[in-house]
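tool=predict chain=A
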Amino acid sequence: RQTFRIVEHDELQRMGSDPDAPFALACAPGFVMDNNARPPVQHANPGMSHGHHPDDPDMNTGLVAYGAGVRPGTKAPVLPLTAIAPFVAALLGLDFDAPDGELFVGLLSD
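tool=predict ok
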C-alpha cells in the first residue's frame, strides 16, 4: 500500500512553494508525518498532524476567532486551509491578494 507520494519540484513551483525545495512528500489518506524522534516518522493517522498536500479535498482546518474585526457569534462553514491567510490579512488591514484562497467575509464584523 502506498503511504505517500513524491511531489516533484515543478509541481511545487506551480503551488508557489520554496523555490529551493527539490521535492516534498505528501501522505496518502489515513497517514501523517510528525517530528516524533522514534520510528516510524510516518504512521497511521490518529487525528490531526502534518504531511498532507494542500489540495487534498479533505484538508480543512479548525478556526476559533475572537476580538476586534470578528463578527460575534458567527459559525464558519467548513473552510479550506487557503481561507485562513485572507481572513487574517483582512483582520490586520493588509492588502493581500491570495493566489489560491478566498476571504469568507461572513466572519468579519461590519
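The chain has a mean pLDDT of 80. The beta strands are 4-8, 23-27, 31-33, 42-44.
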